[in-house]
Fold each of these.
Amino acid sequence: MTEHQTGTRAGLEVRGLHAGYPGRPVVENVGLTVPAGQVVAIVGPNGCGKSTLLRAVARLHRPESGTVLIGGTDIWATGRRRAAHHVALLPQSPRAPEAVTVAGLVRYGRSPHQGLLRQWSREDERAVREALDATGTTALAGERVDRLSGGQRQRCWLAMVLAQRTPVVLLDEPTSALDLGHAVEVLELVREVAATGRTVVMVQHDLAAAARYADLLVAMKGGRVVATGIPRETVDEALVRELYALDADILAAPGDGSPVVVPRSRTGVAAQPTPAP
């Protein structure tokens, strides 16, 4: 990736965020500060508010109260198109238009930069070209997205998000439908994106993967943040038990020492005896 591709460096700050649906609070009093160029992994059980939090930060779900600041800009105090210059979101299960090519998909990332007085430009073309190159999808530019493998498709979607050239990138479960090899490929790409100065916030169900690839871990339960910190200092048996009602051993991975979660049993559920031979 080139430095030109990163745009303005900007951190993310969330203050006292409350969000939900009529009669059903989902995110309650969430505060979060992320310096520019870091990878943040949000973990927690299903239904704890992770995706709603991302949508509120992306200006897609209006919070009941609270503030979202990117580089000092209040996202909810600016227009939708202008906000899309600051933050981009890749949702859980994106759907491409029928028969669209990879290059066509990535060009959609430049939509916020288009308007009546600004049409497609050399700058847009360069942004698309650099995004394809950064994600290793240049050779796929002419291929139809619906004919690619899951791993290839996910890299193409990431290219579209990168082409938007926002300082903050939000990824909602970017590895959920991928095999182990492609999941690692995507997570390594996430690290490369952050290395250019962008801030990446991703929802991640795999706690061990989140701990290995993130600079900061944010654990949520019941709509609230219950733990925040450096992964190897934050992931322990007590946190796993609180989040998932699971007893587990926490081991240090060879090499980098990142925490590896080895489940034992659900909390309060007796382990089943091993059948006699």
Amino acid sequence: MPAVTEEQVETVRALVAAIPSGRVCTYGDIADAAGLSSPRIVGWIMRTDSSDLPWHRVIPASGRPAPHLATRQLERLRAEGVLAVDGRVSLREYRHTF
């Protein structure tokens, strides 16, 4: 993975903070909006610097949260009105675009 700059971290943080309640974005959506080469960079940033952000609004392109986060993430999303069917969030219905 290429070196991540502080500017990139702040851009990702600002984008995640801007996702409205009741909406979701994929890691790829954030990467595209931030001009990053890979959604994995967003994942790395989210793992290391997102405890104060609405991290639960960022999901994989499959619409299925990572297994180790699924219960907590889907509960938080459900509290905002984002419903999952069989553990999958409908991007067609809930996706936020920048």
Amino acid sequence: MLFGFPLLSLAIWVPIAFGVLVLATGGDRNARVARLLALIGAVLGLLVTLPLYARFETAAVGFQFQELAPWIASFHANYHLGIDGVSLLLILLNSFTTVLVVIAGWEVIQTRVAQYLASFLFLSGFMNGVFSALDALLFYVFFEATLIPMFIIIGVWGGPNRVYAALKFFLYTLIGSLLLLVALIYLYNAADGSFSLLDLYRLPLPLTAQILIFVAFFLAFAVKVPMWPVHTWLPDAHVEAPTGGSVVLAAIMLKLGAYGFIRLSLPIVPDASHTLAGVVIALSLVAVVYIGLVALVQADMKKLIAYSSISHMGFVTLGIFIFNAQGLEGAVIQMISHGFVSGALFLCVGVLYDRMHSRMISDYGGVANTMPVFAAFFMLFAMANAGLPGTSGFVGEFLVVMGSVRENFWYAAAAATTLIFGAAYTLWMYKRVIFGAVANSHVGGLSDLEPREFVVLGLLAVAVLAMGLWPYPFADVLHVSVDGLLNHVMHSKLP
């Protein structure tokens, strides 16, 4: 609460309320009204989150802006919200991305406009709910609720194989989440009927029980990340999803799994997290190296960026499970940077697709001759994806590599290969699409960025450069939260 205003509740329910209003506009005859309402809702949703950062006490230990109210009395489940530095950054990223997605789809989506925009507003509210829930049952409800809008976005506005991709996405993530529910019910009984995460953090559990719970958590969150080998739903979902769907999927939804590891796995089952950290690190390094090589051979730009996301998220899970401050802070900063960069890359592909209706690299060449401003933006985001110093992509990866060196030199050596592979597949794609002579008459007829596209890519360019050149505002809110989590994890004692 701040000045009597429940900021976290506003961050959740303002987008959802405007989503309902957007749906109420009816069919496409009121599309302009739907767009305006969606933009107002997205901007207000962002504005109510800004005081969270402005008033966040970087030196305070524990969760801030807490809200507590009875919810389901028979289960002792409460509407309990609160944030630390990790969830603060993710809420800001989510709300910022929602504004960009609404603007990006302003003219592109011409059918079922209200339903399309409302889906993103609902999704934004649900994800803010995940990032701020301090009740395990509330966390689970929001965690599962995010599946519904994205399933609809892919299944209705996606490509030719959208139904297959939507079902695969839904089934993969739902099956993993059911194990999460089983684990939470066990913890509820073990905590004498409490779903409060703060109670679960203090719960003494034997190692065998911790390992079983960790496995259940892992299967739920690894699919969301997604980690190798449960990653196969992501390329299909990205290829078939509309541009806005790909942006939110990459920028925000993949972070739900990594956030689950930080918020549930590490503090609730710390000893099992230590015991099985080697397995997670091994799978993370496979994702970094192997998936980076897979990205090199892709002919579809969207699929290449999708595999790139899997490789970069491998960096995130590596940073989480090496159990030092540099690694964990680097993982969170990498999540935020990946949100900016992957979202920008998918928007760039969307700009080209809207003009040529093709994502195949071979259909392009010489785009810089006809779209020089677009080529400059695309160059910045490609360099950030490759981890160029001075961009956001460098900061998180550098911290994770430094943290990995402290844990094991060979972890760092394997992880650092992403700097080579990332540069290889990103710049090779950029070279074939942007440089050279004009490939064909279609490329020759391309027009440069429209004002709406310039605004969206410009905002992301500012974010990428600001984080790369001055990461302090992002890292400053993390220090106490990360130190507190690591202190809890490293000093846990088995009963």
